[in-house]
Amino acid sequence: MASQIFLNLPVKDLDKSVAFFTALGYTFNAQFTNEQATCMIVSDSIFVMLLVEPFFKSFIDKEIADTTKTTEALIGISIDTKAKIDEMVNTAVNSGGKALKKTDEGWMYSWAYEDLDGHIWELIWMDPAGMPQS
After folding, report:
1. Which fold has domain 1-59?
2. Where would I find the VOC domain in this sequence (predicted)?
């Protein structure tokens, strides 16, 4: 079996988070969904487990990062086109998220957004053929 990634993120309100990410086009695996968690499908090998904070806390001994004061991670996801990145970030903002840094190097384009819980998602498009030669 090929390796898969399961990113676990704490969320304050599972229903609001599901609505937010559904607006961005993500789907969820009902088999791994209940009132405490859901499994968001990013690709065939990447999944994001959204866990309500008390349930998330049951897996750790440390405090949950306060994303209003600190960044615990930057989550980068490749996207097929620049236009799709713009569409997704604008949808995130219209759904309660916050647009962050945008970068356009010509061969690489990225734009980040913050979700409802302060997690930072960086959407990236690259054209390796256009990458500068060093």
Report:
1. 2,3-Dihydroxybiphenyl 1,2-Dioxygenase; domain 1 (3.10.180)
2. 3-126
